[in-house]
Amino acid sequence: TVEDSRYGNMKVVHFFAFVIVCLGLSSCNKIPDPQFTHSMEIAFDIPPSLNTIETHYFLLPNTPTFLNLSLSGNGFQEEDITSIKSQNAKFFEIDQNVNLDFINSIVINAYTDDDEIELFYHENIQFGNKEDIQLLASIPELIDFMSNEFVNIEVGIRFRQFPPANFRAKIELDFSVYAE
User: Fold this and answer.
1) What is the number of other CB atoms lying within 10 angstroms of the CB of residue 1?
2) b/e for 96-116, b at 16 or more Cβ within 10 A?
3) Residue with more model confidence, 172 or 3
4) Distances in Å between the alpha carbon of 10 and those of 20, 22, 56, 135?
5) Measured between alpha carbons, how far is 61 from 170 in angstroms, rounded to an integer?
6) Other C-beta atoms lying within 10 Å of the C-beta of residue 33
7) 31, 106, 134, 153 — which has fewest CB within 10 A?
8) By C-alpha distance, which of 57, 32, 33, 31 is closest to 44?
């Protein structure tokens, strides 16, 4: 009958769906844990009276990475690195406890003369009293940028209000380092 053939077809469809799901789950590999976390700190001044219409970029050329110090301190060499990924970052004001509610978005990029890659970002930052802003990690592989002794950093900030006078910003950057 027609109902028996529909029931048989549904069994076949369910069987193939089950097989596909099982194959998909069995092919998932566990993501390895990083060997260690490499940290960097960047400080820079934000001048007063920047407008709220455009994103303002602060270029920080030749920022030392100190990756070789982290490698040797953790018992690795540069040849051992297999991957470097953004982990987390925190933006805050150094000298005073300033409410950062005047910041709408932040993006941190690394760049060379030929290439640019996003490291961290946070868009549409929520209102509320905050003394620091946690940034989100970007996905790209960073080994080509971070394995250099120096890296060029670009910090883009969009304000929702004018920044206060004498604003000294600091960003703490953490990177996951994978090695063999």
Assistant:
1) 6
2) eebebebbbbbbbbbeeeeee
3) 172
4) 15, 18, 58, 48
5) 15
6) 8
7) 31
8) 57
Written as six digits, the tokens of 157 are 């900030």
Q: Which two tokens stand for residue 134?
A: 């946690």
> Could you tell me which of 151, 147, 155 has the C-alpha nearest to residue 171?
155
Residue type, 47: P
Q: What is the strand order of the sheet 167-179 is part of?
A: 36-46, 167-179, 81-93, 132-137, 116-122, 103-111, 150-159, 55-64
Closest CA to 45 of 179, 159, 152, 163: 163
Look at residue 11 and tell me whether its pLDDT is greater than 90. no
pLDDT value, residue 62: 95
Say how far apart CA 164 and CA 158 lie, in whole Å.
14
